[in-house]
Amino acid sequence: MNHPDRQPLLLTPGPLTTNPATRRAMDRDWGSRDTDFIALTARVRRRLEELAGGGDGAFVAVPLQGSGTFVVEATLGTMVPRDGKVLVLINGAYGRRMATMLDIMGRAHSTVSCAEDEPVTGAMVEAALAGDDAITHVAAVHCETTSGILNPIEEIATVVAQHGKRLLIDAMSSFGAIAIDPARVPFSAVMASSNKCLEGVPGIGFAILRASDLAGAAGNAHSLSLDLHAQWQGFEKNGQWRFTPPTHVLAAFDAALARHEGEGGVDGRFQRYSANCEALVAGMRALGFQTLLPDHLQAPIIVTFLAPSEPGFSFQRFYDLLHARGFAIYPGKLTEADSFRVGCIGDLDADDLRAAVAAIGEVMDEALTPEKPRRTASVPQSTSEIETVTQ
Ligand SMILES: *Cc1c(COP(=O)(O)O)cnc(C)c1O
What we know:
The protein has helices spanning 20-24, 35-51, 68-79, 93-105, 122-130, 153-162, 211-215, 228-238, 247-262, 265-286, 315-324, 350-367, 383-390; strands at residues 9-10, 59-65, 85-90, 108-113, 137-141, 143-144, 149-150, 166-170, 189-193, 204-210, 302-306, 327-328, 330-331, 339-343. The strands form 4 sheets. It has a 7-stranded mixed β-sheet with strand order 2-10-9-8-5-3-4, sandwiched between helices. Strands 11-14-13 form a 3-stranded antiparallel β-sheet, with helices on one face. Strand 13 (330-331) and strand 14 form a beta hairpin. Helices cover 40% and strands 16% of the residues. By secondary structure, it is of the alpha/beta class. Pyridoxal-5'-phosphate is lined by residues 13-14, 67-69, 72, 94, 141, 145, 170, 172-173, 193.
């Protein structure tokens, strides 16, 4: 893609590279009671409901000010009754974060955990549900961004439905690019945000909630501002947000949703990200890098690569060298292996990923020899280089 006005490209899980048209949509002010703004809010909510496969009133989209974490916390607090119990499925940081939230809000929960490079299976969920009648809800992560693994959400949902429990899905890093069909994945809530696969700017989280479950959730929330039932009631009453709305973020989100539709919706985006992921993985393997995950577990969202085993390798230095060439990558978040991550999502195409791989190839020699930095005029000095030199 042509990126004349933007450096660096963000090869991260968010914030990520946005299209100039999306950013330009922010270039005006809106009053929260303007008719135009109320219509904008309604349009975005309706589009999110359609995207979740529930344009028929069975599902309600409730946007919330804040990043994705805010809406995850609000969804758990609103949809789980105070005497409910949640089974949290964990194979990475985002599953762990949901358990931490439940701890803090004082909701009963248990966990099923497996390694970060292994999917949570239906059989694990079956065993946990069979052994504990008190469980009312299951909280799962669709694409666990910690590693980039895709959990088998349909298999999990089938087991949860067989037990008559309700499923809450953190689809933050997959929504809009990997379909979750409610006919095959019966869910009570799906959570996501404005700035991952929908390519808006950060600042809004949202949940798509089964209307009948949400209607019964009044008074569950432990928090005034993180109460999705009250937030929904606010929209129903006068079309307005309860508190100061993220006006510019919503306008950008509306523009981003129009681009998403123009690209062919979820299928179109899945295809572009898949091509990005293939270009990235093929190029990196040709350079000698190894992916953490086998291809069949890898979501086309973000790829974890094992750090080079050479003792001289420094991630900070690698990061700085790539940043100077116009690419921002992401540190690894694994608890076990040394790694780094490269995202495939955002307003990027396969040529951008190939350019990133070429830059990685160019900086490797230098990244592996931090004690003897070789500088070229095109690489500005970074703080860490200066530190290396003065040590
Ligand atoms: C990004 C992400 C979140 C939320 O993160 P924020 O930084 O609060 O936006 C939650 N779950 C998953 C799986 C994510 O990828």
